[in-house]
Amino acid sequence: MEPRLDDTEDKRLMAALAGGDDLALNTIMLRWQRPVRAFVLRYLANASDADDLVQETFVRVYRHRARYEPRSRFSTWLFTIAVNLCRNHAEKMGRRAAESLDASADPSDSGASARPREHASSEPGPADEALTRERAAAVRTAIQELPADLRAAVILFEYEELSHTEIAVIAGTTPKAIETRLYRARATLKEKLARWLRR
After folding, report:
1. pLDDT(119) > 60
2. Would the pTM count as exceeding 0.85?
3. Distance, CA of 82 to CA of 132 (rounded, Å)
4. Which domains does the chain have, with CATH numbers?
């Protein structure tokens, strides 16, 4: 996780963007493209779709530049846009998958497999590298299998290091509800990843 970016600069850039300085969007993208892509990729586990949604996130930032309220953190507003896009995309893909299943009598067409990214390992031996990749893939798959609200909460908290309050604003709920979601998500992940936790 990269250090949290200075919110003062984000607010200045958004004021400039709202005031007609379209080049401010380039700077905003340079500052936030990597964190947003990391979140979207973890949520969707599909690099091509992630790239499209990251681009759409910044299109929405530009389109709704006048709606941004400087009283709130820019990161919270930005991730609200990204989370909503991810949720809508996942729902659309779910509907398409269901329609595909309904149209096909072949059970072998029943699943779209996630394509987890390979991560280079710092472990010395080939067996250790394979084990590390397998463990990372298991974690990604387990997160992907969480319900959408739990998945978003886990990614925003564990990877983006947002607070319960910030996540609550993004999710349109209370910090207590986020605490409950994180508890449920951790319990589910612990169960799914039990074989790895024993190693």
Report:
1. no
2. no
3. 29
4. 1-103 (1.10.1740.10), 123-199 (1.10.10.10)
